[in-house]
Amino acid sequence: xxxxxxxxRRREAALGLTFxxxxxxxxxxxxxxxxxxxxxxxxxxxxxxxxxxxxxxPAAWNRLEPRSRMRMLEAEIPGSGGPGEISAxxxxxxxxxxxxxxxxxxxxxxxxxxxxxxPITQSRESDGxxxxxxxxxxxxxxxxxxxxxxxxxxxxxxxGAIIEAPGGPWYLRAVGPGATMREQRQAFLAMLDSARPER
Length: 199
Prior knowledge:
8-stranded antiparallel sheet; mainly beta; Protein Transport Mog1p, Chain A
């Protein structure tokens, strides 16, 4: 089956300002003991509103036209290992199966490298928005539902996140070469911290 390739859409204009990750205040510590404190600064593009969510993509990411009606947002993630992709999904208020079920589903999509530590589910909350995510590294299995990737990807990573707030939840799945995803980890977390429900 031929799949239409998404064409890059002009990236939203960058604010030219620096977005500092939330490092104190109402943030809850990450589950599993990982600290929620981040110090790196990430430049974000102007926030966009889609499916009831306002979110700012990292300025270096290239927003794409969604290739499926199920996807509310797509972008290409640049990096030294080669490009990755992120897709965001919304299934209506309370839809999509919830955080636990999606975390478990994402775990089945990656074969961890031998001896790799078990991935930890992390979360933090501020201003009534809870962000839960998991970072998986190893071989990302080929998607069976038309998502990226179309073939098994060794030495890669999958970052999955759920944003819970009134009107949500919203789901984000980012996949790419391990080197690229490690470079873009802070940008991914900055994007999560920017997310809030549309008011």
